[in-house]
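Quick one, probably user error.
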């Protein structure tokens, strides 16, 4: 079928070949490297030598692609020896490196030919490219190091997409345009939510008053939900000795992503913490525990730090400093099911509040690489099957994610879909036997014997900072009223209406509604336009009629005119909307 996942993957890989062929027609001295299919498209990395290729060149490359594909009847597979392949790609050091690498691994070297173009390739193409490879679009040009290594040469990466129908391509391009309009970096600046500074450093966001408010409101909402379920906040330092992470396993499995800190006064090695779980084990270990004390549910909103590569930083999507709505539950083995169900139920309710649809991924080991994980494989077998049973018991549909597990535990990961159809991994629930073992955590059971607790790791929105990015783009900056930094703008028509406008503002403040008064000497239409640009939820216009009726003329940010409303009734309605966290 032309819309199934494998066909689209083959279609996209075939289009990468077509892009490469067109490049070689237009720039014969260019050196091709790799061109894989990716989600929603493909790319090809090219060494153009001293020539600079930009997005201005994409139309002529596309034109050449349409011209060449007319002569591509098939993809012909040609097997080659190492010597033949080296001769075929003489002068291309990138292909030579790949040939040497794959021939050492005993792989058969294959080249695929279409028209006059051939490329080193393992395969995975469509039949009849001249008939089926039509609906493509080149999207952007970026820099990329050869094989992702900053020590290697910077190449030119050309991104594109392709679909089996014109309708599929058009829909994707419409969504891409919407995504550009909703880009959180653009809206974050326009709505004055956050900023970055070269003096502070890349990947270290600074939240303005409005951005900090939205971030805090998200955290407070999550905290209000989990505190009702018996979770208690703790607070832990943002730095810890290397010994902590050596014991937890993060030193061996996560060290490259951690910031190292050395004291000026001793030789002790410290790290900024990338996650909370190791420090939470030490709170648990701080005093003897009884079976009667369990479960112990610790939540933590402290800041975390990860040393991301500069080229991978992207607004709030990928940062170096962030927090998590993190929780660790220490419980008896017979309490795991109830605690997991509790967490999954909370997650379900919170996703409903934000209007996000989602699916789950069962993230398991990459069995062929046991060196990536700690602990007994038999325990892994047990926890992976247990996680599967928990999701089935909760009627959760899920898909398998081999290799997506944490190094210490499998994960029940929630993948949310936003209004543009993009997917984001948010919540997680993990059953962990290994950290309690490595830190020798115990409790005294009812029989007087020491037992080992089980540790559940849980997050709901994950990082509130990254979640802010998702919310900005999901709502296009039009947050639900309860999250909108300025919920109401009062707009007096003229100077003589100012006293009544002030009284309206004060009345709203008394009812804990975030309100501003636009007292500028501007025309009303300009005030309305500016409030809409700020994406204020409601505008209250006051003039002679409103003063006489003790009312307000209500407009929504989408331009809808709700007419004259009694002030008390408006306050009651907006308070209900805020308290119920209604999505408007």
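Nope, works fine. Designed sequence:
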């Amino acid at each position: 079928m032309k819309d199934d996942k494998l066909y689209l993957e083959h279609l996209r890989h075939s289009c990468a070949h077509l892009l490469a062929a067109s490049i070689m027609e237009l720039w014969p001295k260019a050196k091709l490297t790799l061109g894989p299919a990716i989600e929603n498209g493909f790319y090809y990395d090219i060494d153009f030598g001293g020539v600079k290729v930009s997005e201005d060149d994409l139309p002529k490359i596309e034109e050449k692609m349409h011209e060449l594909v007319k002569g591509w009847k098939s993809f012909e597979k040609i097997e080659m020896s190492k010597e033949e392949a080296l001769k075929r790609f003489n002068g291309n050091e990138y292909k030579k490196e790949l040939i040497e690498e794959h021939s050492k691994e005993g792989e058969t070297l294959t080249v695929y030919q279409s028209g006059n173009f051939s490329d080193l390739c393992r395969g995975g193409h469509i039949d009849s490219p001249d008939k089926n490879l039509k609906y493509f679009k080149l999207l952007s040009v970026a820099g990329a190091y050869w094989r992702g290594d900053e020590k290697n040469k910077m190449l030119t990466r050309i991104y594109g997409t392709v679909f089996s129908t014109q309708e599929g391509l058009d829909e994707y391009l419409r969504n891409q345009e919407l995504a550009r309009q909703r880009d959180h970096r653009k809206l974050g600046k326009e709505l004055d939510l956050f900023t970055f500074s070269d003096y502070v450093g890349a990947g270290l966001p600074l939240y303005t008053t409005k951005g900090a408010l939205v971030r805090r409101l998200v955290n407070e909402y999550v905290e209000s939900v989990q505190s009702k379920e018996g979770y208690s906040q703790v607070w832990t330092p943002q730095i810890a000795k290397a010994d902590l992470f050596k014991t937890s396993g993060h030193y061996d499995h996560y060290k490259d992503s951690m910031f190292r800190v050395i004291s000026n006064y001793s030789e002790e090695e410290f790290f900024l913490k990338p996650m909370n779980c190791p420090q939470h084990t030490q709170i648990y270990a701080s005093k003897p525990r009884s079976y009667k004390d369990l479960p112990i549910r610790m939540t933590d909103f402290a800041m975390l730090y990860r040393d991301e590569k500069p080229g991978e930083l992207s607004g709030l999507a990928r940062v170096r400093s962030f927090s998590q709505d993190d929780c660790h539950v220490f419980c008896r083995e017979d309490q795991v099911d109830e605690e997991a169900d509790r967490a999954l139920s909370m997650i379900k309710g919170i996703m409903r509040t934000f209007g996000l649809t989602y699916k789950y991924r069962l993230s398991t080991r990459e069995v062929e690489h046991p060196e990536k994980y700690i602990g007994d494989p038999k325990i892994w077998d047990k926890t992976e099957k247990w996680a599967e049973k928990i999701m089935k018991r909760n009627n959760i549909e899920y898909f398998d994610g081999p290799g997506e597990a944490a190094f210490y535990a499998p994960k029940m990961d929630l993948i949310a879909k936003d209004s543009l159809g993009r997917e984001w991994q948010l919540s997680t629930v993990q059953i962990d036997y290994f950290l309690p073992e490595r830190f020798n955590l115990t409790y005294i059971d009812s029989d007087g014997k020491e037992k080992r607790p089980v540790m559940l790791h849980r997050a709901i929105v994950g990082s509130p900072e990254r979640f802010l990015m998702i919310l900005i783009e999901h709502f296009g900056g039009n947050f639900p009223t309860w999250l909108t930094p300025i919920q109401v703008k009062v707009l007096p028509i003229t100077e003589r209406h100012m006293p009544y406008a002030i009284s309206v503002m004060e009345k709203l403040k008394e009812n804990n509604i975030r309100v501003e008064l636009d007292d500028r000497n501007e025309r009303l239409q300009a005030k309305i336009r500016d409030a809409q640009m700020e994406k204020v939820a409601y505008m209250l216009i006051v003039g002679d009629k409103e003063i006489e009726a003790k009312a307000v003329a209500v407009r929504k940010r989408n331009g809808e005119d709700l007419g004259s409303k009694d002030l008390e009734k408006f306050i009651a309605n907006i308070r209900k909307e805020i308290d119920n966290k209604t999505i408007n």
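The two ends are 39 Å apart (CA to CA).
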